[in-house]
Amino acid sequence: MQFFGGSEISPSPPPPTVSGNNAHMLYVFNRNGVCLLYREWNRPLKTLNPQQDHKLMFGLLFSLKSLTAKMDPTSAEKGNLGVPQLPGQGCSFHSFRTNTYKLSFMESPSGIKIILVTHPRTGDLRESLKYIYNLYVEYVVKNPLYSPGAPIKCELFNSTLDQYVRGLG
Amino acid sequence: MAAIYSLYIINKSGGLIFCKDYGSAGKMDTNDSLRLASLWHSMHAISQQLSPVNGCAGIELLQADTFDLHCFQSLTGTKFFVVCEPGTLHMESLLKYIYELYTDYVLKNPFYEMEMPIRCELFDLNLSQAIQKDRVALLGR
To answer: Residue A35 belongs to a domain with what CATH number?
Structure first.
């Protein structure tokens, strides 16, 4: 996993990879698995109630991460399957694709996980997720009224995020 | 360095029935392979639950930092997946071809018991030919 050098917000957001509005939803989890933010733009199918949906999503990411850490064919020392790993430790993953959606995943060094679910034919979104992380730092972490670990209720962040994701298509 | 690191086949209930390594670093023991296979089986199922739209058939491609995992699920629920270098091409057609080999040399073998580990010499032989790098490129035609 690559960490990000400077703390400067990218001057311009990375260019959109495709045109048309195709983002489905976005999750932000903290390192304890608490869902800080859930945004939904286009989700016709709901199988679970929100709380269970967030739990299942976090569980899926956690298990996929232990799977990739164990499966990593380039390192000889992989430890045991299922042992919890610190952010940045072990081989992680950045996206998976099914026939109906693509999930892009990013974990910050502090354990903030950003998950963006989009149309399956979306390109590489790693830069976009970094930009969203920068938005989180600028609008949420630097907000004096925000206490870490609490769900994000920040008007400005939500509107900027919506605008960016819409532009992302 | 091999382009393809390993191949796994799991039956419809998540049991590992075939596993072959083509040169990944660090040996994995049988128990680990079995665990990984059943973990993949459940992750595949959960990914269908989380789909925002109807008709999701599970993960097709997982992109990790150091490898790609391509998965193909047959109509009967048998899953084939290859672990390869990031950006390796023609993996979908390779998996379809492996499925063909499986139907020809495993399912048509009268001594093979359904859902049990695969021990078929002809399958092994044809598989190793198919996995060879230059052959994989041919599949992309």
So the answer is: 3.30.450.70
